[in-house]
Every structure is written in structure tokens, then in C-alpha cells.
Amino acid sequence: MIYSTIHKKLYQLIPNLDTINEYAKFKASGMMDLNVDILFREKDGTIRLALSHYYRHPSGDMIADPDMEIKVFPDMKMAEALTFQDCFGYREVYPSPDKVDVKAKAELNRFLNQWLSNLINQSYQIVIDGSE
To answer: Are 18 and 42 contacting, i.e. CB atoms less than 8 angstroms apart?
Structure first.
């Protein structure tokens, strides 16, 4: 199941995910920095995080591309994509509490799965550790 594969890859990339309080930064030679922001943690251990690269636009602005929100369910060893944003647009799996964009859910989780594989293969290493 893709959700357990995503969970496994997230923890392979970010082994200290359970202890990051707010923020961590990762670097890989020749690649854009990878940012991990913990958006919130639920009492049940569920984590909502943002994973993003930033690049400098010719205007000088820093632009997140891509920027994804991910929900992690540590007890179930599953994780799923919630949102995706790049310079071209924004997509959301759950546009409202009672709606699921099934096409976005499938496409964003496939993208996240591939992106995590790429990040792992690019040997990203933590440089700022937001752990306790």
C-alpha cells in the first residue's frame, strides 16, 4: 500500500521525525535545501508537516516549489499527501471536511512517493536539527 511505503520513506529520510519540534533543514550536494516544518502534532501522535524546496526566482523572491503538506500516522505506520503547491498552482486532497478529490489523492501520493525516493537517492543529510 502506498501509504505505508510513504511512511517508511519519510522515516528513512527523516529518522528523527518524531522528535523534531518545529523545523529541520537538509542538504545534499548540488541540490536545493530541503525544509521540514512541523505544522502540528495531535495528542494521538499524528503529525502534520510541510516538506519543501525553495528556489530564488529571478525577482529575488524565494519560492517554495514544491511544497507539500503531509499527514503522518505513526501508530499505523502510514502517511499521506494532503496538499501540493508549486509556482503553477495549488491542489488539495480534502477541499472540505466532507469531500475528497480522489484524482488529487492518487496523483499527489504518487508524486510524494517518487519525490521521497529521489530525496533518499540524493543523500540528503540534516544540517539544522529542530529536535528536543
So the answer is: no
Residues, the chain:
132
Amino acid (1-letter code) at residue 57: H
Task: Kindly tell me if the per-residue pLDDT of 57 is higher than 80.
Answer: no
Helix (H) or strand (E) holding 2: helix 2-13
Three cell numbers at 2? 502506498
Look up residue 120 and give its three cell numbers: 533518499
| Mean per-residue pLDDT, 71-85 | 97
Amino acid identity for residue 121 in this structure: N
pTM to 2 decimal places: 0.92
* pLDDT per position as a tens digit, 98-127: 999 999 999 999 999 999 999 999 999 988
pLDDT exceeds 80 at position 84 = yes
The beta strand positions in 75-119, using DSSP E, are 78-86, 89-92
Sequence-distant (6+) residues with CB within 8 A of 74 are 18, 45, 46, 47
Of 42, 78, 82, the C-alpha closest to 66 is 82
Residue 30 region by backbone torsions, left for phi larger than 0, else alpha for psi between -120 and 50, else beta: left
